[in-house]
Amino acid sequence: MESRFFIAPEQLEAFEAAARSGSFSAAARSLGKAQSTISGLISNLEIDTGLTLFDRSGREPKLTAKGRSLLHDVRSLLNSYSRFEAKSRSLNAGLEESLTIAVDESAIELKSLTRSLESFYAEFGTVAVSLLHASGDSAATLVREGKADIGIVLSQSDYPEDFDFRGVGNCSFVMVAGKDHPLTTLNAVSIQDLHNHLHLRVSASSDPASMPENDLSDRIWYLESYSLFMTMITAGLGWAFAPLHIARPYIDNGTITVLNTDFQLTPYPYCTDLIWSRRKTLGPAGQKLIDEVSKVLSGEKATREPA
């Protein structure tokens, strides 16, 4: 029978941190351990596996081919361990006293969020809920910094390794301007036409979030409020990409116009994600809120799509 070996999570953490940071000393700082401890953990890992994971012949240790081959598996194991640990704590945890949710209004209709909160309140009425306005990347920042328990955001291509996320819905953006804006007189708006006019954006603290229109104008004003954003658009101050669920009432009453362009013939589609950090355990209330938002948004998606 082939012998089995047992690897401690601390060994895997030391290996991953050293591979990520490029040195044992940097790994020690990131994990709050002594460099000698990191070196010992990695050496023991090499003994236990029978593999040389780092080439120590240079000034800084370099991953060997075998080390690189194992790195993805090690990260998967650490993520699985973090989820197991978080779920175990959650099962043993009592009800949270409060929850803080960072909400990007472009990612979810507020009436949908309200429906989710109504169902949540019916079961967890004693839990205090704080809702934070968080545009652009600020929701993810609040979650990463521990200032929010859950974020509702436009989907990103990549999240930090200690984040969990769930794709729960979708939304669309349309290019709009006030009904009297010069762009509305054009049959087809070109990219050059956009360059000649002010671009209005909702983005926290002038943060150029990864949206498709970043380079379409040399003149950009950043706003943190969708109320001010829509007021400026209806006044004809500039053009913008606006979430369709926010722009729809203004389009319907004729105060803003959807611009026809020669480069984008359909609304820009985006997915909506719920994000939370494995470093901060979600109890039953947090899990319930995630499930309620997921149920509402996925149900809306199902009604919009043909069977």
What does this structure look like?
This protein is of the alpha/beta class. The chain has three domains: 9-92, Orthogonal Bundle (Arc Repressor Mutant, subunit A), CATH 1.10.10.10; 98-170 and 270-304, D-Maltodextrin-Binding Protein, domain 2 (3-Layer(aba) Sandwich); 171-268, D-Maltodextrin-Binding Protein, domain 2, CATH 3.40.190.290. Helices cover 42% and strands 21% of the residues. The termini are far apart.
Q: What is Rg?
A: 24 Å
What can be said about the biggest beta sheet?
A: 7 strands, mixed
How far apart lie the N and C ends? Answer: 53 Å
- How do the helices and strands follow one another from N- to C-terminus? HHHEEHEHEHEEHEEHEHEEH
Question: At the fourth CATH level, what is the homologous superfamily of the largest domain?
Answer: Periplasmic binding protein-like II
